[in-house]
Design a protein that fits this description.
Layout (H helix, E strand, L loop, with lengths): L26 H5 L9 E6 L3 E7 L11 H12 L3 H5 L5 E9 L6 E7 L6 E4 L2 E4 L5 E12 L7 E12 L5 H7 L2 H12 L2 H5 L6 E5 L9 E4 L17 E14 L2 E15 L7 E16 L5 E16 L11 E11 L10 E10 L2 E10 L4 E10 L1
Parallel strand pairs: 1-9, 3-7
Antiparallel strand pairs: 1-2, 2-8, 3-4, 5-6, 7-8, 9-10, 11-12, 11-18, 12-13, 13-14, 14-15, 15-16, 16-17, 17-18
């Protein structure tokens, strides 16, 4: 059992944005915090008494929370010994970390007290009493292990967590008495079973906001990424889907020749109502490459070659997908106007747009010409 005190921190901040990586944590912090790299599912649940947050590695971990009522009962018994100590500062907040390992009978417990922001009182008809504004946080951490990947699989330790953010830590008694936790966990598991999540939860993380006491339509919301924020914020913009005209200029390498390029097209953008910085798009556009040759008299001739292209892609704020930039798309093109000897017969190309910085894009290409008899790479640089 570990007991500690801290200065001016906030017990209600169950999730700290930009949390330390596991390797940088002390042994104590590693004991009382989950390894964030293993978390792929995060559920925020509105309770009558406060809020519950579940952090899981995969869908199988919901099984660990089915007996959450029983775990909370044991938690109340184990912390009852320190009831007087916790009650000594009734206006402050407290964070209690409770670590459970099914393989061992003992639990590890840590208390952190947070002083209130001054002394706050209520005057009701001359009767003066202290008020508590700080919330209490209870973290139930369950130590688990799973097989690793590849041959000779070894067991990898990890943990899952249930966090309760409450007005007072002893409001857990009301949650237990309500007897609704198992039903809530069952609903969350069923709601999390999306096709992509079941197939590979590591590539398709999920966040769910759920209000079991709201009887109307839309009592839960699914987001295909992990969020730290316990409160759901919607995108307030009026237009979520847009149709725009795009114009770019640049230069492309065609075989061993650098050719000026222009591009015009339309783009359909589909934004979500939850995050206006991340969106998908589909484009149809024409690109013209201008090549120059001299005739027998020495006069320059313009050989313009036109491609019709289509691509689909996404914009991820914060470079989440690991590409060079935050915007990436994949597309195909077909040569509809051919001048000169650079291309022959039917010509196609495959390309990907990689936005390095805003208004500057690199486009690696693979060109198939002469009815797929010749293949050569190309590259285009675009601005605007």
């Amino acid at each position: 059992m570990v007991i500690s005190a801290a200065g001016k921190l906030y017990a209600q901040n169950a999730y700290e944005i930009g949390a330390q990586k596991t390797l940088n944590m002390s042994k104590t912090e590693q004991t009382f915090n989950v390894k964030v790299g293993f978390i792929n599912l995060r559920d925020f649940v509105d309770l009558k008494e406060g809020k519950m947050i579940l952090e899981l590695s995969d869908l199988h971990d919901y099984e660990s929370f089915r007996n959450l009522d029983s775990i909370l009962r044991n938690f109340r018994k184990d912390v009852a010994f320190y009831k007087d100590s916790l009650a000594a500062t009734p206006t402050a907040g407290v964070r209690i970390d409770y670590v459970v390992n099914e393989e061992y009978p003992f639990k590890k417990i840590r208390f952190k007290k947070y002083s209130s922001d001054g002394s706050i009182y209520l005057n009701q008809g001359g009767d003066i009493s202290k008020l508590k504004f700080e919330q209490d946080t209870i973290n139930i951490i369950m130590l688990k292990s799973k097989p690793g990947l590849g041959k000779g699989k070894c067991m990898i330790p990890y943990s899952v967590k249930a966090t309760f953010v409450l007005g007072n830590y002893y409001d857990v008694d009301k949650i237990i008495a309500g007897g609704e936790l198992k039903k809530i966990v069952d609903t969350l598991e069923k709601t999390s079973q999306l096709k992509k999540t079941i197939k590979n939860v590591y590539s398709h993380p999920l966040t769910i906001y759920y209000n079991p006491y709201y009887s109307g339509k839309g009592n839960y919301t699914q987001l295909p990424w992990l969020r730290n924020e316990p409160y759901l914020t919607r995108f307030s913009g009026r237009k979520r889907n847009t149709l725009t005209v795009d114009v770019n200029i640049g230069a492309g390498l065609i075989r061993n020749t650098v050719a000026p390029m222009t591009q015009e097209g339309i783009r359909y953008t589909r934004r979500t109502k939850w995050n206006h910085k991340n969106y998908d798009f589909f484009s149809v556009f024409a690109s013209q490459y201008f090549l120059f040759e001299k005739d027998a008299s020495g006069n320059f001739l313009v050989k313009d070659n036109w491609f019709i292209n289509a691509d689909v892609g996404s914009v991820y704020d914060g470079n989440e997908v690991g590409w060079l930039g935050k915007k990436v798309s994949f597309g195909v093109g077909y040569l509809v106007m051919n001048k000169g000897d650079y291309f022959k017969n039917n010509t196609f190309k495959l390309f990907t747009d990689l936005q390095v910085v805003q208004r500057f894009t690199i486009v690696p290409e693979l060109i198939f010409t002469n009815n797929f008899k010749q293949i050569f790479p190309g590259i285009t640089l675009k601005v605007f």
